[in-house]
Specification:
The strands form 2 sheets. Strands 1, 2, 3, 6, 7 and 8 form a 6-stranded parallel β-sheet that branches. Helix 2 runs parallel beside helix 8 (about 205-220) and helix 5 (about 110-130) packs across helix 6 (about 145-155). The chain is globular. It is an alpha/beta fold. Helices cover about 45% and strands about 15% of the residues. The chain has a single domain (about 1-235), classed as Glycoside hydrolase/deacetylase (TIM Barrel, Alpha-Beta Barrel). Strand 4, helix 6 and strand 5 (about 160) form a beta-alpha-beta unit. It is built from 9 helices and 8 strands.
Length: about 250
């Protein structure tokens, strides 16, 4: 009886670990992803998910421009279809734009065919709106399994995760977003997850994220850190990718 119980416990533990790895931002069990630069590099990559979003993506562009910072935006294809003008504004400002699927599903529960469709339809929406863009891909909620990453690779996409998050999807005060980021912060090489939109609908309130962004840029620039796009951070560590961008 004891060996059987031990076997069941081990199986449960393995299942739990596998489930964790399917969502863990820096987990590498299911395939290689880019989640962080070199510690001590003094680089920070601001990344924003779930746009384009009116009006907060445009307000965020103003803040980034004021500080001379370029960021990486992972856009939802159906929103790009609705607001291609905002997607174009992001591209014209020199920011990197990546694929965040067409409808923002949790891909670990989607078939291979559904996953491929989500990625190709988002790419098509971006192509129509802005033309050439990066080959970066971020899975919604961070959810992926081996098939997800294989399909992304087959489509020439490089999967990008993160190692710091502002936990801003429920629009907390800017001070709380900043505190959450600070608690996870390393000396450098940080890929920070923030949101300029919301996956449920256009018009999500991201005013506090916009405020937090300005405050964090000022703070970390004063500390001598350098804000870069994900593509630049990848090049700095020699991460092989077909991604394009500044």
């Amino acid at each position: 009886m004891l060996p059987a119980l031990i076997g069941l416990a081990a199986a449960a533990g393995a299942a739990g670990a596998a489930g964790y790895q399917s969502m863990a931002p820096t987990g590498q069990w299911y395939g290689r992803t880019f989640a962080t630069g070199a510690r001590g590099s003094r680089q920070i990559a601001l990344t924003y998910d779930d746009g384009p979003n009116d009006p907060h993506t445009l307000k965020l562009l103003d803040v980034l421009a004021k500080h001379g910072v370029h960021a990486t935006f992972f856009m939802i294809g159906r929103y790009v279809r609705e607001r291609p003008d905002i997607a174009r504004a992001v591209a014209e400002a020199g920011h990197v734009i990546g694929n965040h699927t067409f409808t923002h599903p949790l891909l670990i529960f989607k078939s291979k065919e559904q996953t491929r469709t989500e990625l190709t339809e988002c790419r098509s929406a971006l192509n129509d709106a802005i033309g050439e863009h990066s080959t970066l891909f971020r899975p919604p909620f961070g959810g992926r399994r081996p098939a997800t990453l294989r399909i992304a690779r087959d489509l020439g996409l490089t999967t990008v995760m993160w190692n710091v998050t502002g936990y801003d999807w429920n629009a907390p005060p800017a001070s709380l977003i900043e505190a959450k980021v600070a608690r996870q912060f390393h000396a450098g090489g940080n890929v920070i997850l923030l949101h300029d939109g919301g996956h449920r609908a256009l018009g999500a309130d991201r005013a506090q994220t916009v405020i937090a962004t300005g405050n964090m840029i000022r703070r970390y620039k004063d500390e001598g850190l350098d804000f870069v796009c994900v593509t630049e951070m990848m090049r700095a560590v020699g991460y092989q990718s077909s991604a394009v961008g500044p």
